[in-house]
């Protein structure tokens, strides 16, 4: 499997698969207005169910691209029958999402994490937000899990985003292609790439804040503990706000960029 290093916005990485002939009941790729880009890394346990949940969106005219960052558990193979294209890119969400954007055909780009599910009316909500004049937007977020503290976390995330005009990747950011390319796409950062992109997009205009939530997994909260994860994220974001190097922050977050 070939890994592409920092693919420029004007080039498309070679696909692992390319379903150019759309499956029965789905619009031809050339006619699709929305491209859903899903970066993945070792998501074999959940990727099939996640992508199957996007089948209705594909039938409504969306193109689905999965961008793998070097999985060792067979994720690309599992994704192939459920996506229009499965691509390989250098590890890191920024590189993977930029690669997906470069290879996509839609006029609107939706960046969706592999552990986040869209509401049933997502396509209509995005269309309405853009028709109202927004250049980009995001959804409110709901974190799966019964813990009361998670309700506080999600409400704080949604309120903070609405107040500041900054969105995070958990909120399923969508943007007009022309605007995404105009601001240069995701910065080449191993962490905080979502916040950095939102800062760029905010110069174009404030985001549409869709109140119907996406649902995101609580797995990282469960893995490290809810309170501990809250404190870690606040420390990281505060450090980034005051100019800390995202590469050092990535190491603190537990992710070290691959050295090829």
TrEMBL record:
GO cellular component: a single term: plasma membrane
Chief location category: membrane
Recorded GO MF terms: glycosyltransferase activity
CDD domains listed in its UniProt record: GT_2_like_a (cd02522)
Places the protein is found: Cell membrane
Matches recorded under Pfam families: Glycos_transf_2
Enzyme class: transferase
Protein name according to UniProt: Poly-beta-1,6-N-acetyl-D-glucosamine synthase
Lineage of source species: Bacteria, Pseudomonadati, Pseudomonadota, Betaproteobacteria, Candidatus Accumulibacter
Gene: pgaC
């Amino acid at each position: 499997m070939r890994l592409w290093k920092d693919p420029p916005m004007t080039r498309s990485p070679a696909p692992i698969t390319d379903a150019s002939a759309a499956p029965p009941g789905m619009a031809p790729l050339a006619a699709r207005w929305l491209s859903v880009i899903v970066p993945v890394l070792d998501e074999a346990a959940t990727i099939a169910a996640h992508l199957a949940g996007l089948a209705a969106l594909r039938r409504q005219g969306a193109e689905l691209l999965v961008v793998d960052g070097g999985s060792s558990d067979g994720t690309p193979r599992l994704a192939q029958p459920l996506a229009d294209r499965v691509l390989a890119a250098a590890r890191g969400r920024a590189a993977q999402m930029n690669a997906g954007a470069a290879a996509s055909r839609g006029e609107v780009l939706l960046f969706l994490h592999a552990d986040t599910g869209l509401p049933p009316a997502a396509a209509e909500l995005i269309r309405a937000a853009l028709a109202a004049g927004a250049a980009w937007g995001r959804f409110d977020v709901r974190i799966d899990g019964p813990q009361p503290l998670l309700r506080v976390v999600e409400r704080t995330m949604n309120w903070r985003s609405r107040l500041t005009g900054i969105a995070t990747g958990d909120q399923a950011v969508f943007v007009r292609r022309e605007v995404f390319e105009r601001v240069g796409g995701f910065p080449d950062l191993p962490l905080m790439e979502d916040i950095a992109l939102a800062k760029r997009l905010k110069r174009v205009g404030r985001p549409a804040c869709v109140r119907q939530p996406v649902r995101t997994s609580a797995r990282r909260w469960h893995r490290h503990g809810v309170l501990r994860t809250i404190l870690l994220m606040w420390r990281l974001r505060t450090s980034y706000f005051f100019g800390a190097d995202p590469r050092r922050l990535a190491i603190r977050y537990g992710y070290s960029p691959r050295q090829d």
